[in-house]
């Protein structure tokens, strides 16, 4: 949801060379024995366990075996999707809720979601257990750190009111919380929107006793895809086999992370030494059951769930214009 702060930039951005990523570039290995195709994937945020499969695929040579030289790129200030759309990277990480403004625009950026990194929405509201917010209705009378974004507030309002609470009594505190543990400990706010696989695990590691209200548990409309891999439309159309090879190698990376979370955590920390290994291990162990959850095919995007979320946005006038069914995603490049 933090990525929604970028929506106004994303919608207004006109990138020179948009979609010019038409054909793949090749590079030679150090030995010159094998040409690899250069592929860039830009993250949505600083490296974390949402991205582990990418680092595992690179470290274990899955990309190289597929003939790819994959560069993992840190995101610019305006986010991954504009960079992908403009040809600055072939693939990137984004979120279905953040992408809504693009797909409802008269001039959408030319990107499509091609894989779900995590099968279900694992975001929700976290608070200290002592505050008693053990159901959404009990957020009334308590303070919530808000980004003041329409979709964000509509989601919180829905779960509160569906549970019989009065959303007008929620104390909205404009704030971008960067340290959830400190914010809860200092009582600067009572409730914070988090992705449990990272910030929720951080509260566990800090020994905090919390209540966590996962949005997807309270409304089927809120079980959207978060995060997803997006690709440049023209690049994928012109390079379908490379796109499939990239996603297949990425699949292998995430499935290796599922099979051995601790080893995957070590690979991520080796690549990003500033991360805390114990925190990453705990997060990785939790996410191992979330990457695929109940599905057998990593990356699969369920059309019904994708459409249900956007239909809810349409019905509540949360997008510029209605998003049509099946707009913005495809499963055609996923390994069978």
UniProtKB/TrEMBL annotation:
Matching Gene3D superfamilies: Periplasmic binding protein-like II
Please report the organism this UniProt entry assigns to the protein.
Trichococcus palustris
Q: Name one GO biological process term.
A: thiamine biosynthetic process
May I ask which residue range the UniProt record assigns to the signal sequence? 1-23
Q: Name one Pfam family in it.
A: NMT1
Q: What SUPFAM superfamilies does the entry give? A: Periplasmic binding protein-like II
**Is Signal found in the keyword set?**
yes
The cross-references to InterPro entries, in alphabetical order and at most eight, read: NMT1/THI5, SsuA/THI5
User: Organism's domain of life?
Assistant: Bacteria
> Would you tell me the protein name for this molecule?
SsuA/THI5-like domain-containing protein
Q: Which residues form the SsuA/THI5-like domain?
A: 48-264
Keywords recorded for this protein, A-Z: Signal
